[in-house]
């Protein structure tokens, strides 16, 4: 909603005015509570004090007096809310001197509005002998209303200061998390960089040797290497990736190692429908697959599933990855996704199952 100026606010239709007050009150629940307490405190104190000194007041007088104070509370409450919203709108564009004069002026307006019915109250109290004249009561009521309005505006200013400080804190925390995410991403890219050059030169050397002994295998290896590099290089600096993309990179990587070693093994993929659009950190699978297959070659399987807000990628590998690779990947995942991110390794004879768990988010 586009902010309106204070004159436009007061010139609005009653329904529009009520809507503005409702929206502003919803955004400032503390201000609404404080206005309600202050609007009730003054008339309640006056009513109790007057009843305590009135000599055998008639029921009609008590009801009229209560009605006048109830009207005071309603008018004062609405005046505080209107003045609070209008004051914030004007002070946002006013200079220092104007802001200094603005709040006392609004407090005077609230006090004057709340005491419009002071003549009716004074008449009843004079008849009951509670006060000697109307002027002292008017002045006292105005001064008390003015003081309460200043208290309300001070609370409003303090609340807004706290809200601004909280907003700055949230922005700083968000920037800190983003900076940490970028740092972690750089670390993850460094992990990938340690693999990619060795992979490139190792695969090129494997292609050279394969052309001398097995040209068809060399052709397949070269095709896999080209496909892997085309899939990997555009995403090396991406902050995020997806489960299918990372699974395909891991499969291509395992296939290349198999062709290079003439091992004849491969990696099968089993990705559930819910995981096909799930976010996954880029490059987190390659260090684990690389360690396992260089230790002992064999068949691999990747299973991905998503349940209860968690995405799980399970690697069934022919050997256990090194502890350093597991710890490095786990530390990076926890830096990116916090405590829910984990790497769990379970030995199954000579084979190993590695489970990577991250929060389920759409890529």
Report on the structure:
68% of the residues lie in helices and 11% in strands. It has eleven helices and seven strands. A hairpin with a 2-residue loop joins strand 4 (300-307) and strand 5 (310-317). The longest helix is centred in the middle third of the chain and has 80 residues, at 134-213.
Q: Strands across the major sheet, in which order? A: 2-4-5-7-6
What separation lies between the terminal Cα atoms?
31 Å
Task: Note poorly predicted spans.
Answer: 1-12
Strand content: 5-15%
Helix content: 55-70%
Write down the overall geometry: rod-shaped
Largest sheet: 5 strands, mixed
Coarse structural class: alpha+beta
Q: Which series of helices and strands comes N to C?
A: HHHHHHHHEHEEHEEHEE
Keywords:
rod-shaped; alpha+beta; 68% helix; 363 residues; 5-stranded mixed β-sheet; 11 helices
List the helices and strands and how they pair.
Layout: H1 6-10, H2 14-27, H3 29-53, H4 59-91, H5 96-114, H6 118-127, H7 134-213, H8 215-232, E1 241-242, H9 243-261, E2 267-271, E3 279-280, H10 286-295, E4 300-307, E5 310-317, H11 323-337, E6 342-348, E7 351-359
Parallel strand pairs: 2-4
Antiparallel strand pairs: 1-3, 4-5, 5-7, 6-7
């Amino acid at each position: 909603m586009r902010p309106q100026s204070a004159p436009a606010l007061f010139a609005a239709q009653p329904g529009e005015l009520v809507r503005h007050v409702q929206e502003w009150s919803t955004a400032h629940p503390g201000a609404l509570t404080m206005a309600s307490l202050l609007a009730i405190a003054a008339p309640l104190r006056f009513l109790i004090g007057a009843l305590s000194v009135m000599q055998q007041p008639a029921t009609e007088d008590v009801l009229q007096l209560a009605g006048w104070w109830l009207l005071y509370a309603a008018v004062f409450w609405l005046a505080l809310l209107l003045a609070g919203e209008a004051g914030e709108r004007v002070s946002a564009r006013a200079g220092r001197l104007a802001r200094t004069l603005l709040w006392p002026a609004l407090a005077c307006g609230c006090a004057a509005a709340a005491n419009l019915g002071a003549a009716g109250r004074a008449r009843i109290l004079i008849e009951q002998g509670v006060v000697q004249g109307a002027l002292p009561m008017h002045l006292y009521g105005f001064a008390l209303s003015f003081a309460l309005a200043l208290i309300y505006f001070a609370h409003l200013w303090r609340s807004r200061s706290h809200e601004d400080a909280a907003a700055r804190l949230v922005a700083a925390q968000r920037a800190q998390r983003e900076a940490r995410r970028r740092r972690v991403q750089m670390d993850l890219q460094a992990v990938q960089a340690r693999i990619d050059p060795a992979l490139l030169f190792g695969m090129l050397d494997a292609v050279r040797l394969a052309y001398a002994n097995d040209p068809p295998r060399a052709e397949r290896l070269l095709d896999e290497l080209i496909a892997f590099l085309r899939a990997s290089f555009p995403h090396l600096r991406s902050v995020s990736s997806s489960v299918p993309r990372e699974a395909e990179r891991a499969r291509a990587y395992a296939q290349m190692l198999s062709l290079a070693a003439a091992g004849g093994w491969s990696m099968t993929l089993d990705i559930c429908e819910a995981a096909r659009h799930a976010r996954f950190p880029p490059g987190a699978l390659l260090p684990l697959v690389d360690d396992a297959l260089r230790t002992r070659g064999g068949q691999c399987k990747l299973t991905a599933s998503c349940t209860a807000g968690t995405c799980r990628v399970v690697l069934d590998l022919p050997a256990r990855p090194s502890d350093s690779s597991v710890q490095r990947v786990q530390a990076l995942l926890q830096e990116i996704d916090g405590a829910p991110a984990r790497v769990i390794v379970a030995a199954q004879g000579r084979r190993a199952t590695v489970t990577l768990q991250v929060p389920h988010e759409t890529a």
